[in-house]
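Handoff note, outgoing to incoming analyst
You'll be picking up this chain. Sequence as last confirmed:
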Amino acid sequence: MTKAEIVTEIAKQTGIEKAAVLNVVEKLMEVIKDSLAHGENVYLRGFGSFTVKKRAAKTARNISKNTTIIIPEHNIPAFKPADCFKEEVDKI
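Most recent structure output, in case you need it:
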């Protein structure tokens, strides 16, 4: 499902204009990204948690050139679904 399909479905179910729904969906994503960028986790009860995980530095190899490179430590966003979310998906 794409963002456009999500907006269409929400607009259909709520009766709110698509433009307003699109604005809310984009602002939600912006707030989540900004929070994670500032090191704050986002918890949505009944849905899941958006967190920042730290990846340790590691050595990687380029086999075709027979060289090694160091990949520095970095942060990545992660999502952990709530238990009720996992149970709902498991029913399918």
